[in-house]
Amino acid sequence: MPLLLLDLDNTLVDRASAFRRWAGEFAARHGTGAETEVDWLVAADADGYEPRARLSARIRHRFTLGASARSELEDALRWGMADHLEPDPTIVQALASARKDGWLPFVITNGTVEQQERKLRVSGLDREVAGWVISESAGTKKPEAGIFFAAASAAGSTLEGAWMIGDSPGADIQGAHSLGIMSVWLHRGRTWDDASFSPTLTAGSVAAAIQVIPMLPRPLGR
């Protein structure tokens, strides 16, 4: 079975929406609850790429948090907003379709083990994929080649005929491109702007990406 490599945040789970839901609750408890405060929190998070320690410090400074609020903040950032995720049945259906069509869905994600595994459990996706590799435990992260080979090894497979689906140009698509892996970029309303490499395809959702991949030529022996 060829591997269908899948990013986690903002690919299989809608982390952006989960963070905004958390931000709304946090601003209501520790600020005025104004939309401008929510927007500030979302911008400060930088789609999850702002280092957590620095983000925590910025939030504590802006909202002048007391000890109990700081503890709440640390817990929320530690768990990556997992408790604010909302399962998406269309993704479960799409993964079932991919398995039926002969693909081996496998998660490849950057992050900490406790955070990313909690997201997989909360969303129920731990039961829908063949497995996962997380950068913290792998000792390598996307776009480095090592994490892709680690995923193939953990899946008992190879990267031959694999596809990568993800939303990050730099981590998901560049990583796949450097290894000659075909890819689908989830554009999330953005325009591709890197002329040095590009995804094989683009799509608006995981379900749409999975629908189009099986239409392409399959690896020999399939």
Q: Would you mind describing this structure in some detail?
A:
The protein has 222 residues and is α/β, with parallel strands linked by helices. β4, α9 (169-178) and β5 form a beta-alpha-beta unit. It is built from 10 helices and 6 strands, in the order βαααααβαβααβαββα.
Q: Nutshell version of this structure?
A:
The chain is of the alpha/beta class. It has helices at 15-30, 35-45, 52-63, 67-78, 89-100, 113-123, 135-138, 145-154, 169-178, 206-212; strands at residues 3-6, 104-109, 132-134, 163-166, 182-186, 201-203.
Distance between the termini: 8 Å
Helix proportion range: 40-55%
CA radius of gyration is 18 Å
Q: Mind describing the biggest β-sheet? A: 6 strands, parallel
| Number of distinct beta strands | 6
Query: Per the principal axes of the C-alpha atoms, what is the gross shape?
Result: elongated
Strand content: 5-15%
Feature tags:
single chain, alpha/beta, 10 helices
Task: Annotate the secondary structure layout.
Blueprint: E1 3-6, H1 15-30, H2 35-45, H3 52-63, H4 67-78, H5 89-100, E2 104-109, H6 113-123, E3 132-134, H7 135-138, H8 145-154, E4 163-166, H9 169-178, E5 182-186, E6 201-203, H10 206-212
Parallel strand pairs: 1-2, 1-4, 2-3, 4-5, 5-6
Helix pairs in contact: 1-2, 5-10
